[in-house]
Design brief:
The protein is mostly helical. The chain is built from 6 helices and no strands.
Length: 191
């Protein structure tokens, strides 16, 4: 039985971490090579922490607010991802020497991305509450997997950005917008 719990927790963790992984790659495109490890750690810690915190909140809140949260979670994720994606495209297309290899990770942007990519985790926490399941082991696995994939994603995106040059950063913005649209459509098509 314990083996099945581990497999289920890993599958849930990888599924939840995919948005964080994609966003990390997109963000890595805008990271100066000299800052890649610092940025990768920042993304891993932030995304991993939010992927732990959100299911815990969902589990604590339980059934009482699930209808309220489900009514707006997809719009919040879409708005945050689209806004940051548009800004990335704008910055990439600006012809500004100061902009080249001088992207500094902004705390507000990192937190917004962390929230946007972890809203699904809130619902997973709610489902754990509905199933009257324990939460400690699954959220530990979710946090570790998200940290690892986010770290790798930033490094991979940085390598792509270095190889393809400055304008590839616009692709990172398009990826963020695409993830936001996917989140929105997934919800709207299920309703």
């Amino acid at each position: 039985m314990l083996k099945m719990e581990v497999i289920v927790a890993l599958l849930i963790a990888v599924g939840l971490a995919m948005d964080a992984f994609a966003v990390s790659i997109a963000s890595g495109l805008t990271t100066a090579p000299k800052n890649r490890h610092k940025t990768a750690v920042a993304f891993g810690v932030s995304f991993g922490s939010f992927q732990v915190l959100m299911p815990l909140i969902g589990w604590i809140v339980g059934v009482s607010l699930s209808g309220f949260i489900a009514a707006f979670d997809h719009w919040a994720a879409f708005t945050l991802l689209a806004f940051i994606g548009v800004k990335m495209i704008y910055d990439a297309l600006r012809d500004n020497d100061e902009n080249k290899h001088n992207y500094e990770l902004r705390l507000a942007a990192l937190l917004a991305l962390s929230v946007a990519t972890s809203i699904d985790s809130l619902m997973v926490g709610l489902s754990f509450a509905f199933l009257q399941s324990t939460i400690v082991f699954p959220i530990a696995v979710i946090g570790i997997v998200t940290f690892t994939l986010s770290y790798i994603g930033v490094l991979f995106g940085c390598a792509l950005g270095k190889f393809f040059g400055e304008k590839i950063k616009a692709v990172g913005g398009l990826i963020l917008i695409g993830i936001g649209v996917k989140v929105l459509l997934d919800h709207l098509l299920l309703v």
